[in-house]
Amino acid sequence: MRASQYFISTLKEAPNEAELPSHKLMLRAGMIKRIASGIYTWMPLGLRVLRKVEAVVRSEMEAAGSVELFMPAVQPAELWQESGRWEKYETGLMLRIKDRHDRDFCFGPTHEEIITDIARKEINSYKQLPKNFFQIQTKFRDETRPRFGVMRAREFIMKDAYSFHADFDSLVDTYGRMYQAYSNVFSRLGLKYRAVAADTGAIGGTGSHEFQVLADSGEDLIAYCPDSDFAANIELAEAVAPAGGRPASAEPLARVATPKVKTIDELVAFLSVDIRRTVKAVVVESEDGAPVLMLVRGDHTLNEVKAEKVAGIKTPLTFASPDAIRAAFGAGPGSLGPVGFSGRVIADRTVAAMADMITGGNEDEVHLTGVNFGRDCPEPEVADIRNIVAGDPSPCGKGQLAICRGIEVGHIFQLRTRYAEPMGCTFLNREGKQQTMEMGCYGIGVSRVVAAAIEQNYDERGIIFTDAMAPFTVVIVPMGYGRSDTVRAAADDLYRQFSEAGVDVLLDDRDERPGVLLADSELIGIPHRVVIGDRGLKEGQVEYQGRRDSEASPVPLAGVVAHIR
Ligand code: ATP
Ligand code: MG
Ligand code: MG
Ligand code: MG
Fold first, then answer.
1. Which residues, in sequence order, are CB contacts of 492 under 8 Å at separation 6+?
2. Complex ipTM value
3. Ligand 1 in contact with 111 (CB < 6 A)?
4. Among candidates 145, 154, 138, which has minimal Cα distance to 38?
5. Whole-number mean pLDDT of the chain?
6. 294-298-301 Cα angle (round to 5)
7. pTM for the full model?
8. Ligand 1 atom with the shortest distance to the CA of 152
9. Sequence-ordered list of residues with C-beta below 8 angstroms from that of 327, at least 6 positions apart, any chain
10. Which residue ranges does the record assign to the Aminoacyl-transfer RNA synthetases class-II family profile domain (predicted)?
């Protein structure tokens, strides 16, 4: 590619909106442009990187026996009604659409329903199983707080795969292959990552892992044991942590506080900001019938289990919509009286910190029900009323837990019959009987991977791409392409050699000052740079500099292609 014909549009300063280094650098490098909140155009340079990630993902998926297809982005409501998710899918996350006939559709946040519909129609016999399908496609999730550019976007690109099986053993086998394929993908992309056990929410069982790129800016907390391979998303670690660590909290069920926020609307507004996206507000009823605002981590069933086992709360938990909060605490914009919180019992620092933000720490320690473990009710069966901290004993029994942050770039999941059952996805087994298929699903946030990789690899000069992800593997920077015939001839010839060798090469023949060309090549993260100037050419030499090298070194012009390949 010749830069003069290409489109490079870099910025000296990052726009104010960007907080994370990856977001700033992607904007400065001109990889992405924001169109609306959480909605981005992938500019030519960014698209090249995205395509490189896709290529690695595609090759590993195919090597693992997955077959590519392409499903529609817009999905009919009927399928979601069959699976029971049309009403339930996380409130607000789904972008719902009506067509001209007033029929309901959504822009797909995920594709379990569509693929299950295909499998039930196309697969009839055990002889066709197992099958694994994947696609690389645009998803839309109307995230409460889109941020960090493409890291948490509303429209984003996911590789999603779905496997179908005659029995659980076959699912476990494919799950293992996917685990390995994901490990290969992230290793080939040069990422420092960790596979961690993840909560399976309503499905149950142990079959779920997230692939987390390790970065301090990550939104997820990971508990891991340096002395074994135990690693889990902290939500899950809290559930499996052994008894006999620190004692269960004897804190009261709820505190009563006069909130810092004074009106119900203020409270609703505060909660909807979703300060920490892992915290949700739930309204439950205490034993005396008074509403209690409970702040819980995440959206997982685990919290319902906790609520019931720990607090004896019978009311089924519904995640509080603004209307539910208003209904529970009084109508309209009236002033908010004292509110009960459960931040202490659901012993979690994030939750407790959020409660403090709402109350300003201004709370009266009142036992709304006076529940005390062991005295008023049996000790909870799940040893999960814990606030895991570094140094706690690891569930593996081998050492102490350490805690780090991660960016979830992949998630694999044994769905079992969660979709196949309600949607009647069956096959004829060896005995000629109808049997429900076992199913797995496997996602990679392809567009998020680009941001996550940059989050791990940059310096004060810009992005540092690995060869596998770089928009161009090598850039030729001629010193005076328009001025010197010798330089131009050598640059053109080298460009031809790289192209013929199949190396992705950028010839920066733009009519710009050398300083601009050099700075741009560093900002956009090209891993290898060859600078060609009159002086070096006299000795048959060019300057080579790897993106991580502190300085350039002379290399014979004749050997430079071999040097980089
Ligand atoms: P998160 O916990 O970050 O919200 P998720 O658990 O909701 O992600 P999954 O449903 O597991 O996401 O989707 C598979 C993958 O898609 C995730 O592992 C992640 O890499 C990616 N992904 C999910 N939501 C987004 C988003 N809003 N923007 C970019 N990538 C996303
Ligand atoms: Mg999510
Ligand atoms: Mg997640
Ligand atoms: Mg996930």
1. 507
2. 0.99
3. no
4. 154
5. 83
6. 85
7. 0.79
8. 28
9. none
10. 33-471
